[in-house]
Amino acid sequence: MRFQHLFIMLFAFALAGSVLAQGAGSDAVSITRSLSYESLQRTTYRTDAGAGTPVETQISTITLTITNNGMTPVNGVVLAEDISWMPAGRQLTFSTQPDSLDGRTATWSIGTLDAGKSATLSYKVPGLIGPESLSKLTEPRATFSKTAATLRRPIPQSRGRRS
User: Fold this and answer.
1) N or C: which end of the chain has fewer CB within 10 A?
2) In the prediction, which pLDDT does 7 show?
3) Angle (CA) 82 83 88, round 5°
4) SS3 10
């Protein structure tokens, strides 16, 4: 009888841990998108002019940060960003080259993200993108799997008989 109670308590404890890990749901991983700007100076030359003309170019940088807010590692993390809003012919420069880029979606395979850890990726777009435009974009998506908990049945110990 005592063994059954111990087994039930261990099962309940393991189940509670599993529910806590999965109960966070999408809260276990959060994604933030931020926007920053930089100006670049370059010089252009015309074939009929002897001196160059300085030109200022604005660049928008979009930064994606994915954070594991859960208490256990998440595995097989894949982050996808919709880039179909980008006008044709615009050159994107990525801080980390996406594992997949089809013209509509950039996808990065991040791998395992330990509890409390983050991964940051960014890409640069020529021109200025306003914060209101950025807020209208489709939210980045992440897929992942959680570390599975296993429950093992305790092996009963045999007690010696007293004489």
Assistant:
1) C
2) 39
3) 150
4) helix
8 Å CB contact between 147 and 70: no
Distance of CA 105 to the CA centre of its chain: 15
pLDDT of 132 strictly over 50: yes
In the chain, what are the domains?
Answer: 26-146 (2.60.40)
Structure tokens at 163: 């004489």
Considering Cα of 141, then 101, then 121, then 56, what sign does the dihedral take? Answer: negative
Given a cut of 50, whether residue 162 has pLDDT beyond it is: yes
| Cα gap 151→163, rounded to integer Å | 37
CA distances from 100 to 32, 66, 81 (A): 20, 18, 11
DSSP state of 70: S
Any idea what DSSP says for residue 27?
G
Over residues 84-102, mean pLDDT: 90
CB 73 within 8 A of CB 115: yes
